[in-house]
Design goal:
Elements (H helix, E strand, L loop, with lengths): L1 E2 L1 H8 L3 H10 L5 E2 L4 E4 L4 H19 L13
Antiparallel strand pairs: 1-3, 2-3
Helix pairs in contact: 1-2
Length: 76
């Protein structure tokens, strides 16, 4: 599915200027139809998968119990 820059920015939850700069620098692939840039949204599948993985890792870290403090005896 092809989206305009505005639609892509909404889809990725990013500012339009940032999406445009990514297109110009080649980080986001797009085609120019003579009037506007069109972005194929299928290229963001891996992006969303990685975001989900990072969220799961953060959640696992937050659910991990805090270890008990070791008892330290100072025998000087």
């Amino acid at each position: 599915m092809y989206r305009t820059i505005e639609e892509t920015a909404q889809y990725l939850e990013l500012p339009e200027d940032y999406v445009y700069s990514c297109i110009m620098s080649g980080r986001i692939r797009a085609v120019h139809d003579g009037n506007q840039f069109l972005v194929n949204s299928d290229q963001f599948g891996l992006y969303w998968e990685q975001i989900e993985q990072y969220q799961e890792q953060i959640q696992q870290f937050l659910e991990e119990p805090i270890p008990a403090d070791p008892v330290i005896n100072d025998e000087d």
